[in-house]
């Protein structure tokens, strides 16, 4: 709610250019104002230095507080504009850099020492004496109570030390600054709200991989790739997900002759903020390929392992001829692969594309085939297969996002497969593909198992029994059950 009342203008232009020029205008205005009203003209000049200047300095503080209030409103407005521009778009631009920063910086206060009261040694920590219980000290007409203006003022100044360390209070004590209760209370309130604000800002900075795209270390990694000529340019962000940020880049030249870098690349940066990865532990923790390493690794390395896993899985798929991005290079938590799409426009997800019923049917059989290949030839279960992770490009379906993929013998591998089957089955049944198998039939078709249960609960129970059997077998014999590694060929379904 705007405190100045509802604005009349209904539509505010929100093209990037307009906003930018408005920014510029505001900044220019500020600059002009600063030039017209230099901050400390009066204080720096000799004749003006009288006792009254203390009040002036309080005014200055108040003015700064007011300024901060303005800045806060300005930032809020900026946030609104940012939100309006970005809407619900997955790809967002950030105005972070246009935020007003904390205007308190000490550089202008250095020359204000002039008005200090020289009766006191400014270099001696002159903490005010405490008032005893009875509420006054001294005798006769020299008695001072805690209400004494000077004592109280000094005390207030000393209490400023309790403000947050980032809150710059200056050398008020050394200067024998006497703050009135009113000013002190205002400052105190302000210090607290600033503390909260800076905590919020800080938190945002720490956790805004999505907004600011990447942290400095990642940016350096990306710079290096461009510098090495491997990438021509990084054009922008395609997607910011929970666990990764994906960029588009034009490929450059490879250092080695034998390797060709695709003309367009996708750069998947696995997020180094760990929160989202915590609940993915189960995928990697139980994957025997990573078992020995998991326990010893720090979180940063675990993130790298996701990238590594995606690379290995993509390579397996590539070798089996499954349409998927081709790995270009892996550096730490950054995976460069070929771009599925053209001219910076990524191929649409299956959920977003409108296909003719013929294409839809074609897509279905292709996916059925790919799932079988993935299981049999790559020894993998996608584990996050859905219309969100399949792209439609060049008249066929491409599989992406395989960092969480596991081998079928993973303790939960078959459950993941069943979930994949359910997603695929439901999607194509809704899309009107009459031939689409139901999730149980699809599971059998992909895995080669012949589970006969005709309802979901029993089916799932049998799946879990199979997983348990395999686990026990591994425990006792140190190897997997034969049926997991593809005797009993699954029937190949085709059009
Ligand atoms: P997430 O774990 O964030 O879902 P994905 O690997 O699914 O990560 O990538 C997120 C999005 O980025 C995808 O939905 C897709 O739109 C885009 N994307 C990812 N890889 C590529 C690629 N190789 N080519 C084109 N677009 C891609
Ligand atoms: Mn995805």
Distance between the termini: 60 Å
Number of strands: 11
Work out the helix count: 13
Poorly predicted regions are: 39-56, 101-129, 204-211, 490-495
Ligand types: adenosine-5'-diphosphate, manganese (II) ion
Strand order of the largest sheet: 3-4-5-7-6
Largest sheet: 5 strands, antiparallel
Shape: elongated
- Beta-strand portion reads 5-15%
CATH topology of the domain at 213-346: Phosphorylase Kinase, domain 1
Radius of gyration: 33 Å
User: What's the CATH architecture name of the domain at 213-346?
Assistant: 2-Layer Sandwich
What is the CATH superfamily of the domain at 213-346? Phosphorylase Kinase, domain 1
Q: Could you characterize what this model shows?
A:
- Its EC number is 2.7.11.1.
- This is Serine/threonine-protein kinase RIO3.
- Its main location: cytoplasm.
- One of its GO terms (cellular component) is cytoplasm.
- Residues 103-140 are annotated as: Disordered.
- The chain has helices at residues 16-36, 41-44, 53-86, 149-159, 181-206, 216-227, 281-285, 288-294, 299-320, 357-376, 413-430, 439-447, 456-477, and strands at 136-137, 144-145, 231-240, 244-251, 264-270, 327-331, 334-338, 341-342, 345-346, 390-393, 396-399.
- The chain is of the alpha+beta class.
- Among the domains are: 136-205, no CATH class; 213-346, Phosphorylase Kinase, domain 1 (2-Layer Sandwich); 348-478, Transferase(Phosphotransferase) domain 1 (Transferase(Phosphotransferase), domain 1).
- The strands form 4 sheets. Strands 3-4-5-7-6 form a 5-stranded antiparallel β-sheet, with helices on both faces. A two-stranded antiparallel ribbon has the order 1-2. It has a two-stranded antiparallel sheet with strand order 8-9.
- Helix 10 crosses helix 12 and helix 11 (413-430) packs across helix 12.
- The structure holds adenosine-5'-diphosphate (ADP) and manganese (II) ion.
